[in-house]
Amino acid sequence: MPLANRQSPLSEILAAADQVILGKSRQTRLALCCLLAKGHLLIEDLPGVGKTTLAHTLARLLGFQFSRVQFTSDMLPADILGVSIFDRERSAFRFLPGPVFSQVLLADEINRATPKTQSALLEAMEEGQVTTEGETRPLPQPFFVIATQNPSNQIGTFPLPESQLDRFLLRIDLGYPDHNAERALLESGGRREQLPTLAARLAPAAFAALQQQVAAVHASPALLDYLQLLVEATRRDARLVHGLSPRAALSLLAAARAWAFTDGRQMVLPEDVQAVLPAVARHRLRLLSGSYADAEDIATLIHSIPVA
Fold first, then answer.
1. Structural domains of the chain, with CATH
2. Which of 18, 57, 161, 276 is the most exposed place for a label (fewest CB within 10 A)?
3. In angstroms, rounded to a whole number, what is the distance separating the alpha carbons of residues 77 and 60?
4. How confident is the model at residue 153 (pLDDT cuts 50, 70, 90)?
5. What is the CA radius of gyration of the chain?
């Protein structure tokens, strides 16, 4: 039985998020799974469909220290990481931390920044630290980047390079709301004004304990065989520029464990792998045509691998 139907902190978080992000329960659950699996989340879609609201909602419900950066083409790495200024009273330089020094950094419209500024986040996302002016500084823990980006065909965007995309555990899109959800929005207004009223449902220590439980969810040898068959199939697929890397395979397993955990289970099933595979793979698999794999491509891949 899914946690969404049981009394638990996670069910409360999902239920509260569903009151803000209407009609997007699956995307909300995937986003929560990403954080439970200690990953970073990329949300891509058109402006105005709720990307920023979803990121802000999760941060508030989880009680994390939160910073938001609106990326622009003239932004510099120091605007994110921080800068040293000269303190006349002390006759010494003093470091002023940037917004990256938070538990959740909302990198809003990240692909509107130049590649130089985008790359400033690489070390932070991979190592949980930043190096500025020759000194390495640890970031608060836990540390998550929730980035939003607009479609790359829009004016004023700089596509994220593969090395940066690979740092995101999952990539989701929200899409337009269904008829009933949009009608509810029209009748009651937008949901952004609800954000200040959202209370944290978990303490940081409790969330860390849940992450440890997620990492301990059992994956049988047969399940690992199935996961490897899927990964190896991407490497043989003639339509793709390249297949999933070993890091992507680890990401797939971590996300599947989190999906199983939010379903109230301590064992990963093939259905869990299938459920998260599109979010793990779509930003990592590029077709020879130049576009990234879509949901139909991923479904074809899944159906090509028999479940033992």
1. 3-215 (3.40.50.300), 216-308 (1.10.8.80)
2. 161
3. 26
4. low
5. 20
CA torsion through residues 237, 242, 247, 248, sign:
negative
Q: Give the β-pairing of 144-149 and 104-108.
A: parallel
Chain position carrying tokens 């989701």: 172
DSSP 264: T
State how far the Cα of 148 lies from the Cα of 66, in Å rounded to an integer: 15
Q: How many CA atoms lie within 13 A of 224 on its CB side?
A: 7
List pLDDT tens digits, range 34-60.
999 999 999 887 777 788 888 889 988
Describe the strand order of the beta sheet including 168-172 as a list of residue ranges.
66-70, 104-108, 144-149, 40-44, 168-172
Residue 87 bridge partners (DSSP): 92
Cβ atoms < 10 Å from Cβ of 279:
27
Convert the pLDDT of each residue in 162-206 to its tens digit: 888 888 999 998 888 888 888 888 887 767 777 778 888 888 888
H or E, element range at 122: helix 122-127
Helix (H, G, I), strand (E, B), or coil: what is residue 219?
Answer: coil
How large is the angle between the packed helices 270-281 and 246-261, nearest 10 degrees? 130
What is this structure's pTM? 0.87
**H/E stretch holding 117:** helix 115-118
